[in-house]
Amino acid sequence: MNAAEITLTPTTTTPDGAGIVPADALRIGTGRTRRFVGLDHGAGISYFFVDNEPGEGPGLHWHPYSETWVVLEGTAEITMGDRRLVAGPGDTATVPAGVWHRFENVGDGRLKVLCIHASPVIVQTWADEG
């Protein structure tokens, strides 16, 4: 074994919180967006599954970790710092830690995006907070 190897002893015991999480358990309010906080489920990542109408999207914000978006359906205009990018179905974009960003549904139909946070908890600082 070299120094870079990690050895684990597998187990048949599933930790508390691991397993299937029903979509409705992750829903935010009465909307279609869902929030998964990895820490609650033994995962090292968190995510939002966003389902927005045209013109909708989160306000300008940043995280102390990177965020990766996977566009599943629709068209998103993504702002990362001073850049504006347009992403469509199947496209992936990543914003580094500490960069102001946002996205908006600029298409005619719904926008579905998986927003993966490289953190077991979600930490967001909004531009309009002060």
Short account of what is shown:
The chain has 130 residues and is mainly beta. The protein has one helix at 23-26; strands at 34-36, 46-52, 61-62, 67-73, 76-80, 83-87, 92-95, 101-105, 111-117, 125-126. Strand 5 (76-80) and strand 6 (83-87) form a beta hairpin.
Keywords:
130 residues; mainly beta; Jelly Rolls; five-stranded antiparallel sheet; three-stranded antiparallel sheet; globular; metal-binding; Cupin_2; RmlC_Cupin_sf
Structure commentary:
Pfam families: Cupin_2. This is Cupin type-2 domain-containing protein. Residues 50-116 form the Cupin type-2 domain. With 130 residues, the chain is mainly beta. Helix content is 3%, strand content 36%. The chain has a single domain, classed as Sandwich (Jelly Rolls). The chain has one helix at residues 23-26; strands at 34-36, 46-52, 61-62, 67-73, 76-80, 83-87, 92-95, 101-105, 111-117, 125-126. A 5-stranded antiparallel sheet has the order 1-2-9-4-7. The N and C termini lie far apart (52 Å).
| CATH class category name | Mainly Beta
Helical content class: under 10%
Q: Could you say which overall geometry the principal axes of the C-alpha atoms support?
A: globular
In terms of per-residue confidence, which ranges show pLDDT below 50 for 5 or more consecutive residues? Answer: none
Strand order across the largest sheet? 1-2-9-4-7
| CATH homologous superfamily title | Jelly Rolls
Arithmetic mean of pLDDT: 93
Q: What series of H and E elements makes up the topology?
A: HEEEEEEEEEE
Largest sheet: 5 strands, antiparallel
- The CATH topology comes to Jelly Rolls
| Number of DSSP strand runs | 10
User: Based on the structure given, which CATH architecture is correct?
Assistant: Sandwich
Report the β-strand fraction as a percent range: 35-45%
Q: What structural class do the secondary elements suggest?
A: mainly beta
Report Rg. 17 Å
Secondary structure tally, helices: 1
Distance between the termini: 52 Å
